[in-house]
Structure formats: C-alpha cells, structure tokens
Amino acid sequence: MPDAGVPTMIESLGRIGADEVQAVTLTGRNGTSAKVLTFGARLAELWVPDAKGQLADIVLGQDSLADWQAHGRYLGTTCGRFANRIAGGRFVLDGREVDLDRNEGANQLHGGSKGFDLKHWRIEDASAGHVTLTATSPAGEMGFPGTVLARVTYRLEHGLSIEMQATTDATTVVNLANHAYFNLSGQGAGSVLGHELRVLAAHYTPVKADKIPTGEIRSVAATAFDYQTPRRIGEQLPGPEGLDHNFCLSSPLEAIQGEILRRAAELRDPASGRALRLWTNEVGLQVYTGAHFNGSQPGKGGVRYHKFPGIALETQKFPDSPNQPQFPSARLDPGQTYRHVVFLDLMPR
Fold first, then answer.
1. Which of 81, 83, 216, 226 is 20 to 30 Å from the Cα of 320, by its Cα?
2. Is 174 left (phi over 0), alpha (psi -120 to 50) or beta?
3. How many Å apart are CA 162 and CA 179, to the nearest integer?
4. How do residues 137-154 score in pLDDT, each as one tens digit?
C-alpha cells in the first residue's frame, strides 16, 4: 500500500470496468518529475529541464484515461510477457510446443492482444521519489506457461531508473521492456530525425519483411545501422520507415548508481540542449523511430503525432529469442528472479 504520508501525489483518473486507474507523480532534482499510471505500469509524463532550465515533458502520451484507452497503446507502457516479436506465435519449450495469441498477423507482438500494457497494476509501495507496481499473469494467459508475478519500480533521483522483475511457478519465457517514446524538444514538437543518436553496438539482428529476425547477427559497419559515433538520426536511415531494429549491445559493464550496467545509447537534441544517456543490464536495444504515426493520433495538449514524433529505446532480450537458440535465452525457471534494470541520465549537456 502507498505510504500514508504521501497521499497528494496519487490521484484517480477514473475506472476501466471495476478497476480504478491511478496516477503517481514522482519528484526528482532540478525540477524533474515523472507521472506513472497503474494502467499498463506506464511512464505517462517525464518533465526535464533544457540547457536554460526550461521544463518540458519529453515523452509522448495522452491527456485523459479515455484517450489512453483509445490512442495510447504501448505509449510508455511496460510490455510483456514477451516484449517485441515471437515468430508464428509459437515456440518449443522443453520439447513441448507453446501456442500463443497472435496479434500481428501470424506473429505475436508485445505479449499478445492482452499483454502487460493493458493490465491494471497495483501500487505496492510509493514515496515522493518512487513507486513499485505489481501484477499477476496467470498460467495460460496469452498462451504462456506458468503463473508470473511481475514487479516494476520507477525511481526518480539523480536520473530515472526502471527496475522490472518477475518470478514464475513453472518454466516459461519472460522479456519485459519499457516502451516510452522520447522527444527531447518536448512531446509534440515534431520529428526527432534531427536528434543526435549514439548506439553502443557493433552488431544488429537483421529482419525479414514481417520484422522477425533472420537469425543472423550482422556488423553495423558501413551500414545505415552504424550509430557507434553520434550522428543525426535522419542522416542515413535503412529505409523510408526508419528504424525498428534490435541492436546487440557491446559496451563493457560498469558500476552506475549502485548497479552493474552497460551503456546502451545516448540521445541529444541540439535545439534544447537536453540529453539522455541510457544504461541497462540487458543484451539488446530495440530502436524504433515511430514510423506508424500518421497525424491521425492525438497526443497531449491537442497536438497530432505525425511520422517520427518520438524515438523508443527499448532495452530487451533479442526479438524471437525463444525460437533462436543462438540468441541469449529468455527462459525463466521456478526459483529464479528475472531482473531488468534501465537507468536514464536526464541532465542537459
């Protein structure tokens, strides 16, 4: 239950069926603040100063619960049980075929049509600077074996940390990811193709037309996927749809904020001076530049999100890893704890 001393930071946004949706506001340093919703355990707002100290909300989202339901799928959510794609909506686990819900043609995306992004999470603990949310996924939900207890903690202090955990009562696969879209000029400010991006990865996983990995791990050298040196996102793209690809992280582990993490990416907006540096303990980073937005989707404050309005930096296991034995495993057994940590340094540069 929330701490008795912090009632003003939790507000009700209304109900979806019998479930009350709550918003928790976290406060950090230098004016930073974040808003987290129990609907989807999502990052709904993130206010960060620019080089002149001016605050802006740098994540895409919606203004009302009705709009979150109608237009907010995956915006800022915790995706699971398995974030990203599983080919054919199936995989084999210990010799048994697991048949999943298919919600992207023949494949499964982000855990299926009723994934973790649509769950109503419970506030387990909260303070002015953190909130921990929990949810249960029963055995067989979206086809996955095992009952999984998931826990997500957002903490805002020196930066924003997101810790995702899961346990299971039967062998299964778990891959949770945060799906915030960032625009460092401020949400609704237009395209992010002018942002400068660095991805600390020497390899990526090529995909077929349905965005399922081919199984190859290919060098980024001399390709449009080489962001090892910072450059404008739009300087060279792999095609008109931009980026929706997994990068194989290659930087060494280091001690950051009491965790052992690797640097995954750096994002900078030359116009505002805002910058984001991202660390994780995971092996992959899905970079998605939001090509599906077409101006029909409303955003916060009455804006419309057109193509490339934000960039998602989703640390994760590799896509389709349950069907790709050469990829790092997403297997979770009873007695083990899945733990995925993301840390975002948000200070202007």
1. 226
2. beta
3. 12
4. 999 999 999 999 999 999
Q: What is the DSSP string of 196-207?
A: EEEE-EEEEE-B
DSSP character string of 78-98: EE-SB-SEEGGGEEEETTEEE
Q: Which two tokens stand for residue 68?
A: 């979150």
C-beta of residue 328 within 8 angstroms of C-beta of residue 321: yes
Per-residue model confidence as pLDDT tens digits over 284-341:
999 999 999 999 989 999 999 999 999 999 999 999 999 999 999 999 999 999 999 9
Residues 6+ apart with CB under 8 A from 188: 60, 299, 300, 301, 303, 305, 309
Active site residue 45: no
| Domains within the chain, CATH numbers bracketed | 7-345 (2.70.98.10)
Q: How many residues does the chain have?
A: 349
Cβ-count burial of 217 within 10 angstroms (0-12 exposed, 13-18 middle, 19+ buried)? middle
Task: Quote the CA–CA distance of 257 and 316 in Å, as a whole number.
Answer: 20
Centroid of chain to Cα 284: 12
Q: How is residue 6 annotated by DSSP? A: -
Catalytic residue at 120? no
Looking at 110, 120, 179, 195, which residue is catalytic?
A: 179
Select which of 141, 266, 282, 314 is catalytic. Answer: 314
Asked whether the whole model's pTM tops 0.85, one would answer yes
Is the CB of residue 181 less than 8 Å from the CB of residue 44? no
- The angle subtended at Cα 347 by Cα 54 and Cα 271, nearest 5°, is 55
Non-local CB neighbours of 258 within 8 Å, separated by 6+ positions: none
Helix (H, G, I), strand (E, B) or coil at 186: coil
What does DSSP say about strands 33-37 and 19-27: parallel, antiparallel, or unpaired? antiparallel
